[in-house]
Specification:
This protein has 24 helices and 17 strands. The chain has 751 residues and is of the alpha/beta class. The chain is flat. The two termini are 66 Å apart.
């Protein structure tokens, strides 16, 4: 039996052994944690306690409606200014150097040692100063050192979502911790009141001389208005209008009435004249009947006619009485006609008088029109002067109102600051630092964690937590004096398996392997350690076997082989059919990536129904693709995407309705021609289909390939026969197994 030792080439971490070291060293871990906790307890006991107190300020408009401005709009504007940026600005104002300097002088902070007024530093501080890592405090003035220490202990911030500002201060003295924020708040409020008083005083000083100037300008403007009104005769009458305009309105009314009277008189005369000329009875007209003489004559005629009617019953026509009555009746008719002529003459005279009056009124209206037009032109200048005077007077009244407000607000009692102390600080009775329990708990927990990690790393680096991996390869190193037995040549599968799982042997650690463990691996072949010449000879023999196997079945080719074939050839398209379904579409993806890595400008076009191959190349299956382009829902630039793992471009199946997209399938050859002109090669995956359906995408320069995971699958053989029967030539079956690409670059569109 030869003397041999076993060396394991693959190891794993033994988690049980690793974490078991914590149980074996629990006492050391606990003691170390307790020591660290004790040191923390000592340091906490030696630390100087610090106290913190807070003063809260409320930023708000405190103007009273009785002492503030009379205009509500001004108050509203002041309130609007106290929001957001204004409140944030007040935080900086409270922490300004002027207020801090005032508080430092008021409380005599320079007399307290914690503010570093003396400039003394610790031994560590002196070392940092000597090393140039810290500035020497003695180079600054006492006031600067006090202000710097005050700023370090002071914290001013705004409560989120409110107008409350918190002034927080920490100190070794509880009384000082409360006194400083209270003093800062009081100094800030006093500064705000002083700023308001100063603003009011400045406003009064500025307004006073301007008011005097405005008064003089108002007097001059109003004097110019009066002088111009008098010189142009623009005297104001009723309804705030000038006299020519008012007279024109009145004369126009009179002219309207005169024209109406003239028209009435002319109508009366014309009616009477027409009645007389036509022989009609004019006595019945209203104008004639209105005459008292006509009324008496008609009454006389009626009496005579009545008497004639009575006497005609007893007397003959030639009776003297009857003749006398008829003579009286004729006379009465002549008198009536004469009276009608007089009425006509009177109506004509009235119409003539109305015409004369109308003419005179027309002349007067024309004169007043000219005067009114002149007055209108003068009023333009007058209104300009009046507007100037009114503007000056309005400005004067505004300045006077503001001056009265500023003068009234000059009193300090009427100028409250836009802030008030909401909660004054009280001397705290409990120090906020150091907190004994939280610090000790954190020290104990942290020390436990750190020491446990140190123990785990020590156990891991020592190699005690390592064990041989399941299924690892074991090499047997025999005694050099013994003749090595000839080792069997491993198969190609064994070589590939060893290349995939073998790890490099550690340089400093070779754990022994028990014989029982070695015997528990009967399925793994034991490979003896051989020299380099034997190993290279075996590799050459394996490569020759692989070449021999490929030559016995020329219709099958690897991914790398078909990539080299496409690179060397002149095919512009590689059309893949995957009869085994989505699992076999990975072959076309591998080929496209191989071509892209070789330097070709490659496009992968997914024409499968599921869209599985392109989804594996992109981050989502919802990208627009070829169906969106065919359906008119996307452009060329929208359907081309980059592969996540290579330089290949990808056009997925898309998200549009496939039925709607297939209606425009006649556009597919034109689209492919455009892609051929852009890319060196277009890899088209058609999925599990037959040779007849690829006629639209497989042109004369296309290479039809069969993607197969298992070349012996009957579906693959049937598809190969179908492709060859349709006249596409020898159908090459591409399998996933392959070899590295030779990296050649084909001249094409990419060049």
């Amino acid at each position: 039996m030869p003397d041999a030792r076993h060396v394991v080439s693959d190891v794993d971490v033994d988690l049980g052994q690793l974490f078991g070291s914590l149980a074996r060293n629990w006492l050391r871990i606990l003691v170390a944690a307790l020591v660290v906790t004790a040191l923390a307890y000592v340091l906490v006991g030696l630390a100087t306690p610090l106290y913190r107190a807070e003063t809260r300020l409320m930023i708000e408009a405190r103007e009273s409606p009785y002492t503030g401005p009379a205009s509500n709009g001004v108050v509203d504007a002041d309130r609007a200014r106290l929001d957001q940026e204004m409140v944030a600005s007040q935080v900086e104002v409270i922490g300004s150097a002027d207020i801090l300097r005032t508080v430092a002088r008021q409380l005599d902070l320079g007399s307290h040692a914690e503010f570093g007024a003396s400039g003394e530093t610790s031994a560590l501080g002196n070392l940092l100063i000597l090393a140039g890592l810290k500035s020497d405090p003695t180079q600054a003035s006492v006031e600067e050192r006090v202000l710097k220490a005050l700023e370090e202990k002071l914290r001013i911030y705004r409560v989120e979502g409110s107008r409350v500002i918190v002034v927080s201060f920490s100190s070794q003295s509880p009384e000082l911790a409360a006194a400083v924020p209270n003093a800062i708040a009081e100094a800030y409020v006093a500064a705000q009141e002083q700023a308001k008083r100063q603003t009011s005083a400045d406003a009064s000083q500025w307004l006073e001389p301007n008011i005097e100037q405005l008064r003089q300008r108002v007097r001059e403007a109003e004097a110019r208005v009066a002088d111009y009104r008098a010189s142009s005769g623009l005297l104001v009458g009723q309804n705030n209008s000038v006299l020519p305009t008012q007279e024109l309105a009145e004369i126009s009314s009179e002219l309207t009435r005169a024209r109406a009277e003239r028209s009435t008189a002319e109508a009366k005369a014309a009616t009477i004249r027409e009645a007389l000329s036509s022989g009609e009875s004019a006595e019945t007209m209203p104008e004639v009947l209105a005459s008292p003489m006509v009324q008496r004559l008609r009454e006389r005629q009626a009496q005579i006619e009545t008497e004639l009617a009575d006497l005609s019953a007893s007397l003959l026509e030639n009776h003297p009485r009857m003749r006398a009555l008829r003579a009286q009746l004729d006379e009465s008719g002549r008198q009536l006609r004469a009276e009608v002529r007089k009425v006509l003459a009177s109506a004509e005279n009235g119409a003539e008088a109305a015409r004369a009056r109308e003419q005179r009124l027309v002349v007067e209206v024309n004169r007043l029109k000219a005067a009114s037009a002149q007055a209108g032109g003068d009023e333009v200048e007058l209104r300009e002067l009046e507007r100037e005077a009114l503007a000056q007077r309005a400005l004067l009244e505004t300045y006077l109102a503001r001056y009265r407000e500023a003068a009234g607000r000059a009193d300090s009692a009427s100028l409250p600051a836009d802030a008030r102390i909401l909660d004054a600080a009280q001397p705290p009775h409990e120090a906020y630092f150091p907190k004994m329990v939280p610090i000790l708990a954190a020290a104990f927990a942290g020390s436990l964690l750190v020491i446990a990690v140190i123990v785990l790393l020590r156990e891991l680096f020592s190699g005690r937590a390592m064990r041989p991996a399941a299924g690892s390869l074991v090499r047997v190193e025999e005694d050099p004096a013994m003749e090595p037995a000839p080792a069997p040549v491993p198969t190609l599968a064994a070589r590939e398996h060893e290349a995939e799982i073998a790890l490099p042997e550690p340089a400093e650690w070779t754990p022994p392997v028990e014989p029982a463990h070695a015997a528990s691996l009967p399925d793994e072949p034991a490979v003896e350690d051989v020299d380099d010449e034997t190993r290279f000879a075996d590799a050459d023999r394996i490569e020759e076997d692989e070449t021999t196997m490929a030559s016995t079945r020329p219709e099958e080719i690897t991914v790398a082989g078909i990539a080299d074939h496409l690179i060397d050839g002149d095919a512009g398209r590689a059309v893949f059919i995957s009869p085994e379904g989505d699992e076999a579409t990975a072959v076309s993806v591998m080929v496209a990536r191989e071509l892209a890595d070789a330097g070709l400008k490659t496009l992968y076009l997914d024409l499968t129904w599921s869209g599985a191959p392109s989804a594996a190349m992109l981050d989502s299956a919802r990208h627009p693709g070829i169906t969106d382009l065919l359906a008119g829902q996307a452009q060329f630039a929208d359907i081309i995407h980059g592969d996540l793992y290579s330089a290949c471009h990808v056009t997925p199946a898309g998200t549009a309705d496939p039925v709607k997209a297939m209606r425009a399938a006649d556009r597919l050859p034109m689209i492919l021609d455009a892609l051929d002109g852009t890319y060196d090669i277009v890899v088209i995956e058609c999925g599990a289909t037959d040779a007849q359906t690829i006629e639209a995408v497989a042109d004369d320069y296309a290479e039809v390939l069969i993607g197969a995971v298992d070349p012996l699958d009957p579906a693959v053989a049937a598809t190969v026969a179908d492709v060859e029967a349709c006249g596409y030539g020898l159908a090459l079956t591409v399998t996933p197994a392959g070899r590295p690409s030779r990296g050649r670059r084909r001249r094409g569109a990419a060049a």
